[in-house]
Design brief:
This protein has helices at 11-18, 22-44, 49-65, 67-80, 91-105, 116-121, 123-129, 139-146, 163-173, and strands spanning 109-112, 133-136. It has a domain at 19-85. It is mainly alpha-helical. The chain starts with 10 loop residues before the first helix and ends in a 7-residue tail after the last helix. The relative contact order is 0.08. A two-stranded parallel ribbon has the order 1-2.
Length: 180
Amino acid sequence: MSGTYLGMPAFPRAAAEATQDDRLRANLTRATGTIRAKRAQAVAELDDWAELRAAGAAIKDRTLRHLDHYLELLETAVTRAGGVVHWAPDAAEANRIVAELVKATGETEVVKVKSMATQETGLNEALAAEGITAYETDLAELIVQLGDDRPSHILVPAIHKNRAEIRDIFRETMGRWGRP
């Protein structure tokens, strides 16, 4: 069975390996416990939580069913505001477009926001292959980047790291920035 994305092993193999890691299991148990408690507290503050959740799901489902329409609306709005929309049929083309846009500025460094799409297309690696360094602005994404790691969760990319591990990543890597 082949890997799932960017050279990662297939899920069954990765899961089997990860479940043997005592520190990872402890990190995830602690983090998910905290997240679940905070979510429960927030949900308890809303009398109509179930209705709000259902309404949000309906909006998401309708949008996905008509995604082509909404993407064209977005393109119209962006163009009207003076922006340019680039369409790409695949990850390689999307990465090529971004790299060309950066190179056209003469810059060799970019700052980017958290985006699973760019993680899935391998944008940072594609930019690096073109001599362009990408720096993450989202703290959790930066932790993952500095640790030469991959995000482990779509909303909480560094959930698999505890505070001591994050401290060690910062100590090891932050002093190198800006130095030859």
